[in-house]
Every structure is written in C-alpha cells, then in structure tokens.
Design brief:
Blueprint lengths: L2 H31 L5 E8 L6 H16 L8 E8 L3 E5 L7 H9 L10 H12 L14 E8 L8 H9 L2 E8 L4 H7 L4 H4 E4 L9 H7 L8 E8 L6 H17 L7 E8 L3 E5 L7 H9 L10 H12 L11 E8 L8 H9 L3 E7 L4 H7 L8 E4 L5 H13 L8 H35 L1
Parallel strand pairs: 1-2, 1-4, 4-5, 5-6, 7-8, 7-10, 10-11, 11-12
Antiparallel strand pairs: 2-3, 8-9
Helix pairs in contact: 1-15, 2-3, 2-8, 4-5, 9-10, 9-14, 11-12
C-alpha cells in the first residue's frame, strides 16, 4: 500500500466518523428544536376570477412558507391542497408528497381556475375527498389533528354555514383567512371556535405572508417544554362581575394553547383582592376540560387590590413542591390586574424573578404600567401587556401563548437545514485540502523513489 493510499484511508476514516457525528448531532438538534403536532393539513385556496395571477402567486408563497415551518413526514404532518373556483380540483393529496421539497415544488405548479367562487362546494369536497382514507388521511385520533386553512377574497356563491358545521363536527379545525373585500360574516360561519383564533383578515394579498408565523406557531408542539404555570388573578371590586367573566374566558383561552398533561403543562390558579385564595394548585387537573371547568367555577372576591401580598404568596406557596410544583421544570407566573396595588410590590416582584420564575404582567383599564414593568421578567417589553378594554384581552392571550411556547424557539425548524449546510461546507473545504495534500504527497513519493 502506498503512502498516498494509506493517508487517504486514514483521513477518509476520520471524515466518515466526523460525518456520522455531525448527522447524529443534527438529528438531535432537530428532535429538540423542531417538532410539530402530527396533523393532516389541507389548504383550501380560492382561485376565482377576482384573484389576479400575481395575487395567486403570493398565496402560493404563503403556502410554501407555512409548509417550510412544518415537520413534514408520513408520521408527522401530511399536507394537501384543494384549489377551487366554480369547480374544485384536488391539487395535492395528503398521501402524495412526504417531503417539504416535494410539497413546495407541487405548490409552485398550481394554476388559478379563474371562474366563480363556490366555497361551500370546496369545503364539501375537502370533507368527502381530501380528508378521506383514500387520499391519505389518517384514522381520527386524539393524537392527530385535522386542520383546514381556507383562503378567500370574496363572497361565496353558495352556502357555507351548514357544510362548515358538518366539517367541524367531523373533527376538522377550520381557519378562515379573508383578503380585501371579503365577506367577514362568511369567514365567521366557516371558522372554528374561538373565532378570534381562527379568523384572520389581511387588506391585500401582498401582505398575506405576515400570517406565516402565526400558522407555523399554531402547529408548533412544545414537546420538550414541561411547564408549571400559575395564574395570579385580581378579583378586586373595580374589575366588576361582567369583566371578571371575561377574565375567566381569557384564562381558558390561554389554557387552550397549552399542552396540558401529566408530563407537560400543569396549571394552578390563585385569586387575590384584600386576601389571597388558592383556587386550585398545580397538578390537580391534568386535562383541559377539567381545568377549564374549574376556572369557570371561580367565584368573584370583590374587595381590595393587595398585589404585593399575592406575589409573596406566589413565591412562597404556589411554586412549592408541597403545592404540586415539579423540581427542575420551567415556572411561569401570569399576573393579571386592573388597578394600582394598595400595598408595596417591589420586594415581592423582585423575589419572584430571583427565584427563577418567568413572570408575565397583564394590565387592563386603570392598571399602572410602571407596576406591570416591575412585575415582568426581562426583557420587559416581551413580558408585560396592557389594554384599556377587557374585550381586547384576546389579543394578549395570543401573545402570551406564543411566548410560553417559544421558550427555546422550538419551531425554528430551519436550524437543522442551517446545521447541515455548515456540515456540507466543512466537508467541501476538507475535500479541497485533501486534493492539495494528495498532490504534495505524490510529489514526495516521486522524490523518495
């Protein structure tokens, strides 16, 4: 064996080991950072004559970007696309493409049909065909979501209310996106509850891409983020009974977005006014239905506003092992208030953050923003929220859900691609060095001979 061949065998062995390590590392990164819930997802896209060709291209870009954020695969997310106008065309079946590259390529080839707007017909087609076993849909299961995203810019020429209800009754979660002069009442008839989460509007197709992140996050499963979440709710008399009911709905809106289970998210609830009352501790309820029922039963205390006292209770009791908190698990406190505290909050707020709790502060009405900022974790701008109107709290719930979910940016799925690119670049650089070294070794062998 020559010096050259020996050298190459040794170096290629080293490179092979490195490549194996890199692939395993990349896979580990993918497992930790990017996991979307197993979903059968069907896009239902309006390509009627009111959608200009350039606008339809923007819709396809939106679809492609949402797909890029998904964990696509036979056992993960399957994607289908239904194109409709006066007729319906099954462009991409759930069983056809099992990779992102294949899906995106198929989406780029879709052409607009450019006739009428039979949205009801398209939903019926999705229910009967696109979500059928024959087209690759999986058997209905609590572990597999079935989702339809409808994109339309006009008023349908047929009825959508009854067929959309049948689709929802069949377990399909429907998101409705309206563009331009769309009929908003139609979107609400199609979409699943809560409507605030399932109905979106953009003024033109040119800005539809701004919804990309929402849908990537909507499918994001924070599988590696066990979390203990405690709500600390102001029940003072200034809130008023009708608004207190809105607060309870707001809490349940956030619970809907958590992955509640024995091993994932646990939720506790504390109400305060002049005194502090634990409504239920962490871990008592480990499914969303029981949690939401318990929240609905919370009785309004209707007295003062001792926020400092409540924060001390949170630090000393709510996140203790005796009250159900789990060692080594992320602790999140969500404080809601509608007014100025009647006691000093500084020390208690500081202690909560020093204990390592991630603190969110939500204020409504007469809440004092300086106090909210004092309660909130750093960076403050991402952890405190204020609105003048109780009815606008749903927007805050969306933001809170996102921030809890993105503790470690779990849906940064392109991290794996970037990592693999670095590996490829490194291998290419090493290959060039090998070529150079082989030439030098050949010259050396010639001189030795």
């Amino acid at each position: 064996m020559t010096l050259t061949s020996t050298f190459f065998l040794l170096l290629l062995g080293f490179l092979g080991a490195q490549a194996t390590i890199d692939v395993r590392t990349a896979a580990a990164m993918a497992a930790g950072l990017c996991k979307t819930r197993p979903t059968d997802l069907v896009f239902i896209v309006d390509s009627s004559r009111s959608v200009r060709p350039s606008e339809f291209e923007q819709v396809k870009v939106f679809l492609a970007k949402v797909i890029e954020g998904l964990d696509v695969g036979p056992n993960a997310t399957r994607v289908g696309v239904v194109n409709y106008a006066s007729r319906v065309k099954n462009e991409v079946s759930l069983k056809t493409h099992r990779t992102k590259a294949g899906l995106v390529k198929a989406v780029t080839k879709i052409e607009p049909l450019s006739t009428g707007t039979m949205t009801g017909l398209a939903i019926q087609f999705a229910l009967n065909v696109a979500f059928s076993d024959a087209e690759g849909a999986r058997v209905k299961s609590p572990d597999i979501s079935k989702v339809a995203i409808i994109v339309t810019d006009g008023r349908p020429q047929d009825s959508v209310k009854d067929v959309a209800q049948r689709a929802r009754d069949a377990g399909i979660e429907i998101f409705a996106i309206g563009v331009g002069r769309v009929d908003m009442s139609t979107l609400k008839q199609m979409a699943s509850d809560p409507l605030d989460d399932h109905v979106d509007y953009v003024e033109s197709y040119s800005v539809i891409e701004k919804l990309t992140k929402k849908f990537q996050e909507a499918f994001c499963a924070c599988s590696n983020s066990a979390t203990d979440v405690v709500f600390l709710i102001d029940g003072s008399k200034s809130v008023r009974p009708e608004n207190f009911e809105l607060v309870k709905k707001w809490i349940n809106q956030i619970i809907d977005k958590l992955d509640v289970s024995d091993i994932k998210a646990h939720v506790g609830l504390v109400q305060y006014s002049s005194s502090v009352k634990q409504e239920f501790p962490l871990g008592r309820y480990n499914n969303k239905k029981d949690l939401k029922d318990a929240v609905k039963k919370m009785a309004y205390m209707e007295r003062g506003t001792m926020t400092g006292q409540a924060l001390r209770y949170l630090s000393d009791n709510s996140f203790s092992v005796a009250q159900g908190a789990r060692p080594g698990v992320t602790k999140v406190g969500i404080v809601f208030t509608d007014g100025r505290s009647q006691d000093y909050i500084g020390d208690a707020a500081k202690k909560a953050k020093e204990n390592g709790f991630k603190m969110y502060a939500v204020g409504v009405g007469n809440a004092v923003e300086d106090e909210l900022k004092e309660i909130a974790s750093e960076p403050t701008g991402e952890h405190y929220f204020y609105t003048a109107d109780f009815k606008a709290m749903t927007q805050i719930a969306k933001k809170l859900q996102i921030n809890i979910c993105q503790e470690e940016d779990p849906c940064e799925c392109d991290s794996l691609v970037k990592f693999q690119k670095k590996v490829e670049d490194a291998l290419q650089a090493l290959t060039k060095k090998l070529e150079s070294m082989s030439k030098r070794i050949a010259l050396l062998e010639n001189k030795i001979v």
